[in-house]
Amino acid sequence: MASAVHGPRLVLLGRQGAGKGTQAAKLVVHLGVQHLSTGAILRQEVAAGTELGLHVQELMEAGDLVPDEIVLEVVAHQLADPDVQRRGFLLDGFPRTQRQAAALLQLLGSSGLDAAINLEVPAAVVRRRLLSRRVCSRCDTPTTARHREHTVYCQICGGTAVRRPDDTPDAIERRLATYEEQTGPLLGFFRDKRLLVDVDSLGSPDEVFDRLMRELQPILWGTGEAVS
Ligand SMILES: [Zn+2]
User: Fold this and answer.
1) For the chain, which has fewer Cβ within 10 Å, the N-terminal or C-terminal residue?
2) Strand 115-120 relative to strand 196-200: parallel, antiparallel, unpaired?
3) pLDDT at 139
4) Nearest-angstrom CA–CA distance, 42 and 44
5) Is 163 a catalytic residue?
6) pLDDT per residue over 116-135, tens digit each?
7) pLDDT confidence band for 225 (50 / 70 / 90)
8) Which residues pair with residue 118 across a beta bridge?
9) Which residues surround ligand 1, an ion (CB under 5 A)?
10) pLDDT tens, 148-186?
């Protein structure tokens, strides 16, 4: 089913607040891949009030992660999409654990994965970014609030940018701790398979993207004549 993906096949890793949303948007424009954000997909289910959405909402409100089986089902469904198979994909928010990573590679079969990109940022920087993070209530585009009470509008659609309900300081600390626990084995798994691409994610979005593309170019287009 997901064995015939023709475009780039990428996973985007990094703590929440490491600038994943910004880099994902740039990668989508630059590579023409389909952005598969499991967080956004699950939030759509919550907003639509589906059976899956109601279950996911309970878990999110408790600060818990959504179980593997549910996320895997959602991802498998997305990967089977003809548009995804034609254009390639950027998976964002999945996998979170080594077990999920193994399941993903199994799902992809012979087409495999090109790279798992790891955006690296110190925890203190991430904490500060998360507290000022807002997301468009209409189109899900991420943005940053300069002041806590400042109203922020989306640069894409003009919608109001809001703090996510699960972005309280307590929930942020819990997610950072959970990420630390799970990320070691996950990064090790991809490193062992020579799929991990570490990218220093400090600096402007353009600087980080340039670094990222320098790493990806030989992987996606070979070491010969670079295509940009
Ligand atoms: Zn918007």
Assistant:
1) C
2) parallel
3) 94
4) 5
5) no
6) 999 998 888 888 888 888 99
7) low
8) 13, 198
9) 136, 138-139, 141, 154, 156-157, 159
10) 667 889 999 999 999 888 888 899 898 888 888 888 899
DSSP characters over 135-180 = EETTT--EEE-SSTT--EE-TTT-PEEE--TT-SHHHHHHHHHHHH
pLDDT digits (tens, 9 = 90+) for 62-85: 877 788 888 888 888 888 889 999
Confidence of residue 2 (pLDDT cuts 50, 70, 90): very low
Ligand 1 mean position to 158 CA, how many Å?
6
Assess whether 43 carries a catalytic annotation: no
Q: Which of 9, 15, 20, 43 is catalytic?
A: 20
Q: How far is CA 36 from CA 16, 18, 77, 221, in A?
A: 16, 17, 11, 22
Cα of 142 to ligand 1 centre, how many Å? 8
Active site residue 20: yes
Beta-bridge mates of residue 12: 92, 117
Residue 144: count of CB within 10 angstroms of its CB: 12
Ligand 1 center to 121 CA (angstroms): 26
How far away, in angstroms, is 190 Cα from ligand 1 center? 34
Q: Specify whether the CB–CB gap between 88 and 6 falls below 8 A.
A: yes
214 part of the active site: no
